[in-house]
Amino acid sequence: MNSQDVILGTLMDRSLTGYEIKQLFETLYSYFYSSSYGTIYPMLHRMEKDELLTKESILQDGKPNKNVYTITEKGKKQFNEYLNSPIEAENVKSDFLMRLFFGEYVGNSKVIEWLEKAQIQIMEQLDQLKDLCVLYKDKMHPSQVICIQIGMKNYEAKLEMITEGLIRLRNLEQEERD
Amino acid sequence: MNSQDVILGTLMDRSLTGYEIKQLFETLYSYFYSSSYGTIYPMLHRMEKDELLTKESILQDGKPNKNVYTITEKGKKQFNEYLNSPIEAENVKSDFLMRLFFGEYVGNSKVIEWLEKAQIQIMEQLDQLKDLCVLYKDKMHPSQVICIQIGMKNYEAKLEMITEGLIRLRNLEQEERD
DNA sequence: CGTGTCATGTAAGGAGTTACATGATTTG
DNA sequence: CAAATCATGTAACTCCTTACATGACACG
């Protein structure tokens, strides 16, 4: 799975601009993929050159011009090949979890601070996903439902453990004061 | 968080070889970090040059020689600076979830195949984590306990949703046949 | 009147992976 | 006897991020 595969998949059911693709990455895809404009725009150019996509420039007044990309037959074929290739291992880099792992080197109050910040952030992410879930509810394929449910359940699992952990750490702090 | 930070943290409580560090990445750290020998060995060299680590070569018979690395005061200071820097956003690339998201383009039986494979794999990962949890149980810092609990709960959440999803998809397949 | 949104793009650099090379010993 | 384990290392390459540049309109 690389940016090309994700872009191909994204354009399978409708044509989009680079900007709109990035928005999808930040919302609907946020729990399983991310990449920056510095990846997306050059990749779209390359994919057009490789005839996986076609570009249509749309002049707008009041707003900057758009480049709307549409997947070609060749692009669809390529995406299909990807879907039939072996699944790659998940790749996670979680600074938050790593800090928790090394929490013994910073003291309880700092760990509590980290947990509280994470709690707020994850709540926001979960809310965003829930909203999207309501929005797309009836248009979603069963497979997509499973995907988004895993995403939500993951956030919920994290929140649960953070809440439990906070209780334990706050008790420890209290005991120290006594 | 980059490979240097993770290596520094790993060497905080004991000296290790590159090979042993990699083993930790693959087991204890597997749910929040990974990297290859191609990252680890050159990074260890660089960190020794930068005086963050010292190297001790140990000659073994029957086995290849070892380079055991120990963190220096400078290294500890650097790790402390990292711990006091702002936490970076989590970065996930999950090929599995992305395929589920685009599952409508492959048909139910393929999605079921993906889910079944993932189920087995995640069960193994969860078992591994559980074993480690038992092994380190009494030596773990409260913060580390939270970390590993999040890891386990995450796997459990995924398994739960996969099981539910499989039931739904198998019913759909059955209905189609009728 | 500043901040956010819409919209695209590039250049330089960083961080990492893959594939290869070596080689003895242990395990099934 | 093959495969896995122990153990280190490099070179080529890929992919991606960061930081910058541009510019108009809308909102409060």
TrEMBL record, chains A, B:
This is PadR family transcriptional regulator. Transmembrane segments: none annotated. Residues 7-80 form the Transcription regulator PadR N-terminal domain. It comes from Paenibacillus chondroitinus. It holds the Pfam family PadR.
